[in-house]
Amino acid sequence: MDKIAILILAAGSASRMGKVKQLLSYKHTTLLGYAIEQALKTPADAIYCVLGAGAEDIKNEIRQPVKTIYNPNWEQGMGSSIAVGIQEIEKAGFDYALIMLADQPRIDAVFLTQLMGMATVHKNTLIASDYGSKNGVPALFPKSFFDQLKTLDGDQGARQLLNSGNPKPLTLIAEDRVQDIDTPDDYSRLLKN
């Protein structure tokens, strides 16, 4: 069986939110706690969480069994967090990395499990979330992409890789699940639903 690791990106400083976004209350936990809960409900073999800004405070709030990775270059953006995380996942011998964000609380275990299920049918294939006009994360990367992911930097993350068309990823329609919580307005809208 292929081994899948989930990599949750939670290293940003949440400058638009004005406070530590990862620890905002959501349901009975935090935004990050909820993302971890969803990841733990999938058939993944391990969960990794990349931390950066406020790493110690955030790490102290994590109650679930996850491996944390500190990105010393978190200020360089999401790409650097992916690179650091993929290095760890590759060292541990995983066949796939499913990259997801800590601030997309509409992404649930069902959706993540569907992405993984596609990989059992379409081996060694890049699988992304279809946002409508573009592809994004959560996305499942086979290890043949790890070398490319380890060279990422900047704030674009894996966007170019998912949208270059070379190779064209398989996609799963994300519909209304893709909703980043970046500002206080985003957060208050989330709590109303």
TrEMBL record:
Report the superkingdom from the record: Bacteria
Q: Name one Pfam family in it.
A: NTP_transf_3
Q: Which residues form the MobA-like NTP transferase domain?
A: 7-164
- List the Gene Ontology MF annotations in alphabetical order: nucleotidyltransferase activity
The record ties this protein, via SUPFAM superfamilies, to: Nucleotide-diphospho-sugar transferases (SSF53448)
Q: What is this protein called?
A: MobA-like NTP transferase domain-containing protein
Source organism (scientific name):
Leeuwenhoekiella nanhaiensis
